[in-house]
User: Fold this.
Amino acid sequence: MKEAYISIGSNMGNKVENLRKALVLIDSAENIQLTKISSFYETEPWGRQNQPHFLNATAKILTGLSPENLLKTLLNIENIMGRVRKEHWGERIIDIDIIHYEGENIKSENLTLPHPYFSERNFVLIPLFEIEPKLVINDISIKTYLKKSKDNLKVTKAKGSPKDFDMTLIAAVDKNRGIGFENKILYTIKSDLKYFRQNTLNSIIIMGKNTFHETGVLDERKIIVMTKTENFDENIYSVKSVLDLFNLLDNFNSEKIFIAGGEAVYDCLLPYANTALVTHILSEKKADKFFPVLYDFKLQEMRFSEEQGVKFAFSKYVKE
Assistant:
């Protein structure tokens, strides 16, 4: 898997919705894993001024696709979202560009890498610096590119990025990253249950239907169940997709948001989480559901404990 950085922009229709949809489609594409996203930025149009302002963002991905096949995939996502190419640098519902692909310098008829204009565009450099301040492209740091940029178009941080929800993954994970077997949680440790409760009280908890059926209703917490197949009573929120989830979360204020599993929910929401609280259980059991690898997260603290002969460690990770 190679690292790559992409830029996303929109200046037609519901721009927040367009960027969110593009991110979800990118992450769901085959051989692409979204690992970091920036804030959204409102920017003046570059290249042709007589058009609406853009909303822009950047993202980091891991991909097994070649640069050419990655480009084809991103162009296909643009087509799915309804982009029509009428004029160069004109209005567009979505625009997705590859900015940098690890280890590649390409000049061909269809693709130039790194992107030929990235160093001239603050709407690329500013969010790129936000997600990867130590990134170096062609032996020059993003910080240096930004310092030398002559672009004077206004770039202002805006609301709407899934990053703004400040979601936290919370899980109990064994030595093999196992979290469950046959729709049952692998370990029930009193200290871990207390840790879970202390952290999630008066918060929003997102989970899949199997996890909900395992845990039941949790007091003093709002529950959102991600499911396409079930309806719940009025005390439980439910959503059918990641985009539906984002739209629902827009309606809440300052509650903390936790992602509590299972495997599919962790996988689809991992790119948007900023923190992970992981109870590492230093043993293993047979598992058929697993916690994802925490790409781009850094261990911030770890506290060891033991209960009834089971050793474990409460750990906090923060996205770098």
Notes: The first helix runs from residue 15 to 28.
